Structures are given as structure tokens and as C-alpha cells.
Amino acid sequence: MGFIVGASLALLGLLMAVPAVWGDFVTWQLGLFLLYGIAAQGVGLAWGRGGFLPLGNALFFGVSGYASAMILHATDGALVPNLLAIVVCAAILAALAWGLAMLVFQGRLESGPYFSLITLALVLIVEQLAETAQSLTGGFNGYSGYPSIAGLDPFGNLYYLIAGLVVVTTFCLMLLEKLPAGLVLRGLVSQEARLQTLGFATHRVKAWVFALSAFITALAGALFASHQGIVTPQASGFVLSSELLIWAAVGGRLHPLGSLLGAVAIGFLSAELRDTYLWWEVLIAFLFLAVVIAAPGGAIEMLSYLAQKLGWRPHELTVAPNPPPPTRPNNAAGALTLRDVHVSAGEIRILDGLEFTCPTQGFLCVIGPNGAGKTTMLKSITGAMKVERGEVSLGGQTVTNLPQYRALSNGIGRKMQIPTVFEDLSVRENLQLASLANRARAIDYFRVAPLGWEIPELSRLLDQPGVPLRELGDLNAGALPQGHRQMLELCLTLTPAPAIVLLDEPTAGMSPEETALMVRLIKKYQLETKAFVLVIEHDMALVQALDARVLVLHQGRRFAEGSFGEIRSDPRVAEVYTGGNK
Amino acid sequence: MDQLFLILLNASWQMAALALLALGLAIVFGLLRILNMAHGEFVMLGAYSHVITAQFGLPPLMALPVCIVVVGLVALLIERAVVRHFYNRMFDSLLATWALSILMREFVEMIWGRAYRNVPLPVEGMIKLGGVGYPTYRLMVIAFVVIGLAMLWLWYRNSLTGVRIRAVVSNPALARAVGINTTRFAAAAYVIGCVLAGLSGLLLAPMLGVEPSMGLDALIRSFFALVVGGLGTLEGLGIGAAVIGGVQAGLSAALNQTAGYLGVLVLAVIFLWRRPDGLYRRR
Amino acid sequence: MIIQLEEVAGGYGDTLIHKGLSLSVEAGKVLAVIGRNGTGKTTLARLIAGELPLVSGRIRYLGSDISQLPSWERARAGIVSMPQTDMVFDALTVSENLALAGATPPGSLIERFPRIAQRMNQSAQTMSGGERKILGFVRAMVSPAKLLVLDEPSEGVQAENIDHMVSSVREACANGVACLLCEQNIGMVEALADAVIGLDSSGICYRAEGGEVSRDAMLGTLSL
């Protein structure tokens, strides 16, 4: 925390020194690019931390600018009404942004292109409206003839207001990084599907990110009106939107200082050089392409890399361990039942009238030949695949076809067939994210303490001899070998303490020792939480070790059910595996 | 009555022009599942082929081979150097092609500046149709689009190459198992999609204002036509172009151009929300 | 020697399924690979077809090292695979599926599988699981092959059609085609195999040739 405060104060100091060192004109120019820098921070937030590409953010900048100009005109620049108006206008734009994002991102994982193109169309429309609505906006020539806020001189004291805003936004965004909210955002960009199985409604998360992005961009746009004395359609146009993207990318969209740096450095240079050198814009475009393809962290990441070579270490936040709140009560509880479930992929029927009832606690192993529908069954329970006919219910309450992020609130946790962890996050951060799942309330995402929650279910797993995850805390999850990855994934699944645990081939790719360890971990969890654990497995030794009831699936239906001994000696089951008559 | 006929002709023109514009995008998205954000810039390059041809003092008809060569080479280079690395990664391919579109725009701006250029109509004059005169060139383009799409559809459904294309899209691993070079297929699909975009720019240039950022409008309207019609099928392209083109023509005539644009956007968002697969379900 | 695998290792991502597998198939012979789900039969088929890269080791085909050869080149060189899942083109009709094999089915094949001839203009995705397997099999048999790689062709197929498959493979072998057959159907293996390899989670657990092949031993590798 001290680092963030220190960096912000340093920034403030730096900005304050400019007028004294470089005089009024440079200060005025810098003021403009600082405002663009805040807008670039907004874009960087949406793109780097939200994982979507907004192609039209200048519309928030310009619309807020026009609104501020009009209100300054009407109130003759009075300070308090205008400050109020700025915040209210920014909030309205943020609300609209929130609504748009909710609409676009709901229910689809691959909605990136749609979002980008809709924001592109919007900014073009707004630019066109600004140009044609002469009576309102002054049209092509712009809206002018209004005083700046509180009569502050753009070549003088207005700069301090701008500098103040920059420091505030930079501080807040850096703080956000360190809080649980920032961790959730990094998980979102890393592996959205996994975040949903941890109960996060990712479309809502993206909507809040976009709203915040719109809010700070609008604040900057309002001050822009005072700074320039005129608002033209360019302020809400496509070209500015494009430039914001380029500045955020080249500066470093993953860090608020990066976006700021990009806007100030490249913006300044472009203003100086673009008229002299015709090829300047092409060069910048090349730079943008290079960053997009090869260096997503931009300039700030390269600077940080150099600094680390010289011995500087990024500040690690340490939080004292503290007890977590209990898990939220489940929305539904009881025995998991499938009734006449039909699921298809295209025209091919995978589940063909699957019907069975699970016990409320204990183990059930599901086996069957390839194509029998085992993984599809799990997916249909959590909402990852659509159930066309039939019903999935929990203790009588139907949970069929609910969105994936609702599964955990119903007490269902699922471990995927291919171990899916948050690859770009460290092992410790993976576990911190899982610790937040199903426990954190909204306010907890903005407190530091939840990063130190010690979840009893997780501690029990990590304390088991042979589990190396505590020691590997700082390692990137993507670098883990398969066996450790499976263990991490198991921890992610069990930490939110689901009452129903669906494990899809939990020991695939593990050595016999690791497999035995996993069996111990799973058994321990079940014993302590009295959960119901459903395991899909091919390894018969594992099935035997779990001493569970066995369900045999074949051609999308229940084929046989019984104890391990009964199933093993059933000749019909043997035929299913050895190719008897179908 | 004449007024109605004129409106119908205008609507047909809008629909045909949009279908032509969106064809290249439909092919690239339908076959490769990537959204080519540089689609509009290939349209723009095609339009600039007229400028290049005039600049080199070549006869105007040479604009056609110039277009194919220039657009083809640029597309080939881009596919090899950039796009190839982003198949199956939708967000990254979006980003990379967006960056490329910026680069292409800036490049053209550097060479030819930002000024609007006027391209003369290759065929002047009007044809009288049922009491109404309509520009000959537009009628030619409408006819070309209708016949061309019909022939394309027939070819796709009946030729062995059409079978191979559908095979690769349906099951790339099995396609390789029957000896189809899927890498070369992807490159060809991208280049052909871009060349078609260029050709649409070439044909439509006399009616559009030729300037470096003309591609944005083409990209947006093509994309929305595909969203409404159904991403990635010829039938969807036809339906989408008809709906979007019709709505835009209608609203622009009734109110103004911005209203037309806004109407298209609203329609696309509604479709996205309610019918994400578009009107024509991919079988 | 049509194909030879030398200490081949490969798998998915970080997971090695095979750590050093060696086998060979001769012209006109059938090598059966048996084992339960998850033991690596499909992985082996994909390594030979070229859909999975070799982590180490070599594959020799007709005397040349094809370890780096892309899968479509291998197919053109005569390695014809029938995958276990997605073995037909769902978007195409039966006749279009077969057209991609590059030749029309000979009369003997049509006789054995009359359903194929009857459904020529039917879309493959409307067929049942067993019928799609048969279509995939016929497509593989029609393609010009020197090595057939069949991954569980009998799964979901009726007994009499399995017998027809056996006859078709025998005919191909009589013409010098080699065959690698991944299967769990012991009956089919017994009818066709000149040699058998059994896989379990640690690798090859059983090897036998010709008369040594024992039904009981094979059942043992498949038992639960």
C-alpha cells in the first residue's frame, strides 16, 4: 500500500514541478495530454482488465465535454453547480455504458467482436450527430463561447485541477489492482469460463468495468471543455477513440501509469512531429501492431523488466491471515436428480433420456465407454450444455439450464476434464480467488483483508503431506506440470465448499503416487463436509479405492448401477466394454 | 406509382451493394471463424485501385487487374505474417486485424492524403424502366450481384471444391486425413475474401466517397448484415443484406441518413440480444 | 515393412501418454492394439496420422522418416485413417463423403453395406451412430491406402456389419495393404489380427503374434 501512495505522491510532485520548469505554454499542452491520458486509462482498464476492446470510448469523452460546455454556459462557470453537473453527467454515461455491456455480454462467452463493432458504430453515430445537430452542438465548427470552470485559467490554475484528477484516477486504479476486485479482473482476462464456475457473473463484472471506464473518461472530457474553450465533433469521434487505444497499448494497457505514459509521450510527440514527417502516423501504427502481436504489456512492462534487471522488485502485498465468513447458503439443496434428460450437439444425440437420482452424500463413480455421455452429463448439470428435454433438479427444485455462474450458488462445484486453472496468475492468487468464491460480499472486493482469508477446507488440503502448492505459491499456474495442475484445480473446486462436487477425470495424467494422494484428498473432503461427490473415471483402481457406488452410462442412457463388485462381475457391462451386441 | 417504383429500385440497389460489400467478410468469417477487422480497408484498397490506375496513366479498365493484384498481394502478405498465427483465437485475431486496419489506413493517407477523390462512373446514362429512369451502372451492379451470388451458391453446392470447403469447415482434422492441405486452404480463404472485398470497393467506388477511412462504414454495415442474417452462410448473407439494406434505405428516405444508421444499429443489437444465430440457422 | 515406430513419445500438452513405444506392421498384415479407455489407443492412431506431434522418437513409413511430415501429406502418401470420433463429415451427404476419398466404392463394398448405396443423398448427420461408423469405414476402405489406421470401427455397429468389416479388411490385406486396428471388440481382433499389442496405463503390457494370441490374455487386459 505504501508503494501506491508513494508512487502517487511522486507523480503529483512531478506534475507540480512542470509549470515552474517549463512555463505556461508547455503546461497548457501537458494539461491536454493529461486529460487524454485519463481517457486512455479508461480504455486500458476496459481492454487490459476487462478483456474486451472498446473502439469508441471517445464518445464518453466528447458527450461529457459538450454537456459540461453547455452547463458552464448556462451557469456562467460557477464552481459547485458545475462540479456537481460533471459528476452527475459522468454517472449517467457510466450507467448507459453498464446497460450496454450487460446487454451485449449476457449469455455469450465469445461476444468480443459484437461489443467492439457496436461501440464503433455508436461513436460514428455520435460523431455524425454532433456534426449535423448544428443548433445544439454548433455543428462542425464546435461549441464555444462559455467560461471555464470557476473561471480558472487554462494556461494557469486549471492545470492543478487536471493534475489533481490525474493523480486521483491513477491512485484509485493502482489501488484497484491490489484489491480483491483487481484479482477478479485478472482472473476474468485469464480464464473467464473458470471464473464462472466459481460463481462469478462475468457479464456483470465486465459491465462494471465498462461503467468505470466510461466514468473516468467522462470526467476527463468535462475538464477538456474548460481547458480548450471549445468542443468539436472530433472530441467524440472515431479518430480520437483510435488514438486512445494506440496510446493505451503502446504505453502499457495493463497498468494505469502505462496508459498515461502512452498518451503523454506519444500524444506529445505526434502533435510535434506529425506535420513534419508524413510517415509518423504509419510508424505509430506499426508500433501499435508490434505491441499487439508481441508485447501486450507495452512500454511500461519493458521499463519494469529493465528495472528488475537492475535489482528493483515489484512490491508484494502481504496480508495477515484472518478467518473468513462462512459460505453463503445454497439456493437449492437436496439430492441431485436427472429425469429424462436429452442433450444434443447439432443433430447428434448425446444424452438420450438419462435418468437417475444421486444420494445426498457419499460417492458415485460414473464409468462407460467413449461417447457414452459422461462429460456431457456433467456439463448439462452445471448449465454448460443445453438440456433440450427433461429436467435436472436439486431436492425437488429445478435447476435445468441455469447460467453457469449460478451453479455454485446452488452448491454445485465442477472440476473440468482438462485441468483449467488461471494460467497467468500465481498459484497463491489462484487460491485467493477460489477463497473469495461463494463467500465474499460486494464490499469485500474493496477491502484488503479478504486476500488473507484462511479457508479451513483449503488449509486441510494444503496441509496434507505431498501437496506442494504452498511452497509453489509464487509460481505461475501455467508453468505447473500436469499432476500439480490437477491438484490445484481440485483445490479451486473444493475451496468454496460445494455440497455437490462433480469431478471429471481428476487423476488423468498423474503418477500412481499422485493418484493415491488425490484419492486421500477427495475422501477427506467428503468425510469432513458430508458432500456428495460424483467422479468420472477410467481408472478402475481408483473406482475401487473410492469404494463407491458405480453408475455405467452407455449411449446416453443409464445402463447399470451397483456396487463395484456387482458391476465388475456383470457380464452385460463387460460386453459394453469389449464390444458385444449393441 | 412511379415514386414507389423508384423507392423499390433504390432499396434493391442498397441491398445489392451491401450484399456485395459483405460477401468477403462472410467468406472469411464463415470459413475461418475470424472477424477480419481490416475488411473495410480491403474495400478501400479496391476503391483506390481506380486512383492507382489513373496515377500510372493506365486505361480505366485496367483498374480491375490492378485491384486483384494489389489487394491479393497485400492479403497474402498479411495472412502469412499476421493472421495465420491467430486462427482459433477470436479476440487476438480481432485485435491484430484491427491494428492492421489502422496501419493500412495510415499508409494510404500518407501516400494519397485525406482528400475525397471522385471516381467517374464507368458507364454513364440512365435506363428507362416502367416510366422511371435509373442509372445504368447501378442496374448493372444489381444484376451482377444477383446473378453472381446465385452462381456462387450453385457452384458451392455442386462442385467438388465446394464439397472440400464444406468438409474443412465441418471437420478440419478429418479433412487433413483425406489429404486436404488445411493451411493452404485457410490462406486461400483469407485472400479470396479480401480480394472480393477489394472488388466490391472497385465496383462501388463511383457511388461512395473514396477516402482513407471509407472502410469503417463498410465494415460496420457488413458485420451487422451478417449478424442479422446469420454469420457464415451465403443464404444468411442474402437475408441479412436484404433486411439491413432495406431498413437503412427506408429510414434514410423517410428521415435522414443518421436515422438510417441508427436504425441499423438498433436492429443489430436487438438481433444480437434475441437471436444470436441470426435469421438463417446454419445447418 | 510398411510402418515402424521407434521409441515414440507423445501426448497432449504437458501430459505424455506414450513414453517410448515401438512397433511395426508389415504389408498385408493386421496389428491389433487393444486396451481399455484412456490407455492411449486413440493417441497412437493420431500420432501415426500426424494429428499429434511426436515429442521424441521416429516413425518410418515405406523406408522414409515421416516424423515431421504434415498429416495431409501422410494421407496422400497412403496412410488412411478412420478416427474414433467425428469419423464422417456431418455437413455433407453420403455421396459427398465418399467423393472426398477419391474413388467410387467397388461393387463388393456396396453389396456388403447396401445401406450406404440406399442413402447416397442423405446428409451424414441424420444417420445413426452405427451407420456413421459404417460410412466412415467405407470411406477409409475406398481411399487408396498402403496403411489403414482404424480406431474402434466396430463401436456401436451391429454384429453382422462387423463381420462385413472383417471381410473387407481381409480383402484389402490380400492386396498388400497393412492395417493397424485399435479395438476393444475381442471377436473382431481374433478374426483379423496377425499380431496383438495390449496397452495399459504404464505402456505395453502384452505382445503376441500368430498362434500365441490368447483370448483369455486379451480379455485380461480389458477387464475392469
Structure description:
The complex is a heterotrimer of chains A (582), B (283) and C (224). Chain A has 582 residues and is an alpha/beta fold. Chain A has helices at 2-49, 58-75, 79-105, 112-132, 134-137, 158-178, 180-190, 192-197, 202-228, 238-251, 256-273, 280-294, 298-309, 374-382, 427-436, 456-463, 482-494, 512-529, 540-546, 564-568, 571-578; strands spanning 143-144, 230-231, 336-345, 348-357, 362-367, 389-394, 397-398, 412-415, 500-504, 532-536, 549-554, 557-563. In chain A, helix 10 packs across helix 12 (280-294) and helix 15 (427-436) runs parallel beside helix 17 (482-494). The longest helix of chain A is centred in the N-terminal third of the chain and has 48 residues, at 2-49. The mean pLDDT of chain A is 89. With 283 residues, chain B is mainly alpha-helical. Chain B has a domain at 20-213. Chain B is built from 11 helices and 2 strands. Chain B has helices spanning 2-32, 39-55, 63-81, 90-112, 136-158, 160-170, 172-177, 182-204, 215-229, 234-254, 257-274, and strands at 126-129, 132-135. A two-stranded antiparallel sheet of chain B has the order 1-2. In chain B, helix 1 (2-32) packs across helix 9, helix 2 (39-55) crosses helix 9 (215-229) and helix 5 crosses helix 6 (160-170). Chain B is globular. The termini of chain B are far apart. The relative contact order of chain B is 0.19. A 6-stranded mixed sheet of chain C has the order 6-7-8-3-9-10, sandwiched between helices. In chain C, 34% of the residues lie in helices and 28% in strands. Chain C has 9 helices and 10 strands. The longest helix of chain C has 16 residues, at 159-174. With 224 residues, chain C is an alpha/beta fold. Chain C starts with a strand and ends with a helix. The interface between B and C is medium-sized, with 20 and 25 residues.
Number of helices of chain A: 21
- Tell the overall outline of chain B: globular
Which fold name fills CATH's third level, the topology of the largest domain in chain A?
Rossmann fold
Q: How confident overall, as mean pLDDT of chain A? A: 89
Overall CATH architecture of the largest domain in chain A:
3-Layer(aba) Sandwich
Q: Tell me the structural class of chain B.
A: mainly alpha
Largest interface, C-beta closer than 8 angstroms, per-chain residues: A-B, 37 and 39 residues
Which spans of chain B have pLDDT < 50 for at least 5 consecutive residues?
none
Secondary structural class of chain A: alpha/beta
CATH superfamily of the largest domain in chain A: P-loop containing nucleotide triphosphate hydrolases
- Can you tell me the CATH class of the largest domain in chain A? Alpha Beta
Overall number of structural domains of chain A? 2
The main sheet of chain A comes to: 6 strands, mixed
Report the principal-axis shape of chain A: elongated
Strand line-up of the largest beta sheet of chain A: 8-9-10-5-11-12
Count of discrete alpha- or pi-helical segments spanning 4 or more residues of chain B = 11
Strand order of the largest sheet of chain B: 1-2
Helix content of chain A: 40-55%
